[in-house]
Protein 1
Amino acid sequence: MRVDRCGRLLAALGIASLLALPALEASASSSATSSASRQTTRQIALQRGGASAGRLECVPYARQVSGIDITGNAHTWWRQAEGRYARANAPEPGAVLVFRSSGGMRLGHVSVVSRVVSSRHILVEHANWPGPGFPKGRVARDVSMIDVSDRNDWTTVRVEIHGDRDGFGRHYPTYGFVLPRLANGAPLPPLNPITVARARLDERAARAAARPAGYVGRPAALTDAIASEIGDVAEPVTRAPAPVVAQSAVQTVAQAAAPAARPAAQPAPAVRVAMFTPRESLHDDEMVFGAPDRSLR
């Protein structure tokens, strides 16, 4: 009797195993297909320039536009540039402003100076600085950036809000500017990508630099906001006056006898200031836009 029961139990277990075998095979096949699909997706992303293939980071774009051959997280550029590139705390066209790691921008940020408007106002271009209505990974040009540091050394800045609102974001700490020349004053050599992945990133950045920007700054719409922070938007960059040279009596008489020279034409202001009435006063909630909550640069 006991043998019969054991036989029936073994027979039942065998039948159950046979019935479960197709389900196990189907599950294994589905798992293998899913794994292959994930691998294919990852390979496609890598072939297109990285896991975030649809988004351009700030580092490759700044490297491509400035010619400064530094890789790695943005906040490390200042340290990496020491001894290799000239550095300063005053802007010039082509220089890269290096943001420190702070708050939601733990990897820092880099922006390239495109124009110096005044000693406290510059226009920059960069990638991956989103705003309201302006997504991550896009290129922005002619963006206003103002220096709000106490000593006018560009260690604290505010950046124009990108998107469908006017105004400036919060205060961001920075290191300073990496200048577009070597530490010994020599011109920059050509970029030299040493890996396939780096070459792909540089190629994507070059294509982005050749296309129209996703956002173009509006300095005229920020006149009041800039004036309240740093003064006149069209304030020229201050330069030391030329030394006064004493003239002899003969030179003085000769100048008096010479015909009066026509006054030189005044150069156009650095920024054309439009006469307008602000759409509405800026509120605190309009000042919070700027860098993303998490930085992937």
Note: The radius of gyration is 30 Å.
Protein 2
Amino acid sequence: MPHLTDFRFSAQSLQDYVECPRRFLLRYIQKLDWPAEQSNPYLAFEQYRYKGELFHICVDQYFHNIDPVLIEQQIHNDDLRTWWQHFLEFIQEQNFLHTVSEILFQASLGDHLLIAKFDLLAVTADHNVIIFDWKTIAGDRKPTHHILVEKMQTLIYPYILCRAGLSVNGEQLAHPTNVTLQYWFPQYPHEPEPFKYSSVQMQQDQTQLRGLMEEIEIKTMGDFLMTEDEKRCRFCVYRSYCGRGDVAGNVLNEDQETALNLDLDNLDLNFENIEEIVY
């Protein structure tokens, strides 16, 4: 794999690869600038993304013991204020023994490194561990379970946690049978999507991850082919490089499976520029 010395794979980079190897090449190997907007209407899309970023900041402040009243005083958007109220109602019903917000974990797999940033890790009274991922979405449709189960994030997050380990008060907790990944949607606070982990699933995930990384490693530049699913190109910032059109798709009107492949919380997250934290 050319020009990726010490590259740290993430859910986003591997999602890019499985959706379109050419996108992986352009973004992570050639590191090209983005020549096109990602979604149309651009302003509405950016507003959704900005509100999602602000929501994550507010929640992180909450878990750093900032007064929720003071946090709400910073909020000047009706949608964001509603999401914040939904979060407060949700979190006040929980009884966690321990929480840590916005934390990076790294794990090795063979000669490769995997990295993930968790929105929240929570230890329950029965010593189970929940990885929470706050999902803000554009439009009025929540991702279905069958879409989320196919996301690389669903595979990678619990795997990295179990490989890296998690100890609270000296007790090792991150055994696969103790781990759940839960997507929580501030627009749909009563419709979370949990994914319970297991030792069998972890072994399957390790095999799949190892295979993907080894496949990427042996490819030549010409082997990173464009996706055959041209619907994906409507939301790809590199589409003009591939002759796949100049006009962005409308994330607010697109069919569910295509539009919801856009993760508004992680679109620009570049783990190669994040300071390394090893567990």
Note: The first helix runs from residue 11 to 19.
Protein 3
Amino acid sequence: MKQTVFFFLTFFLCVGLWAQTDDTSFPSSDGDSPSSADSSAVSGSTDISATPEEAPEADSAERAIPAQTPSEEPKASYAVLHNEFYETSLKERNAAKLALEAGNYDEALLHSSEAERNALLSNTYVEKKLLLARINKEIAEAAKRLSWAKNADAEKYYPDELSAAEGHYNAATDARDNEDWDTAIENARAVLDDLAAVIAPPKKDAPPPDMPPNPNKYVVRAWDKFGDCFWNIAKWFYNDPWKWPILYKANKDKLPNPNNPDLITVDTIIDIPNLGNENRVGMYDTGSSYMR
């Protein structure tokens, strides 16, 4: 009887020791690699800190878990690894060893069983923390891209893509809250796919200074003082003196001699026609600045 009890105690203690190994990796199911986003515990090597939660259900280890590649596997912090289940398993293991040495085999068997149970709960707890860290990181990347797209006027230029991305983002956070890991990962990554074609619009030119529209009327001044003639007026208003025939043609009937473009009288109000898509309005004001 003693030999049988000793065998089982040794077996449970060995299992307990194996379950406490800090380098334990947690296999998953589908090759995905969720990571933390809204948790400050994750950065670089992904050091996760958290306080222990309620003990997970015994069958929680059977929940479908997205897989991770070794290069992306986060590291659990000391605080997460040394959670309350881990500490309890150590106490129970030591109690089992003391009871065995004292010959209290039933008590030793009970403590050893509790050590094993808490060791498995500890592993499940750490596994959940790592999963949440990876999933949160995926969702944070999606949120970052979504925010960038909105700032890039995606609502105006890419409304369909933005709408789809917002739907997938909401689905990702809902799935995370429901511990549907695969769906959370799938939707977080779908956000990036939805917004892959979104590019920032070109920078807008600075708005022009607050200037009045160019005039379409001009009062002729004295030649000897201001040099008013169709040649100079075309240079002033069109930036090209060779456009003087446009002015001559538009104002021919206002000249003393319609066949002589060189003769324009002072105080004649001449028209300045639009060129192309110009929209000239009003009388020229010598005190105003105009677009050229």
Note: The longest strand covers residues 217-219.
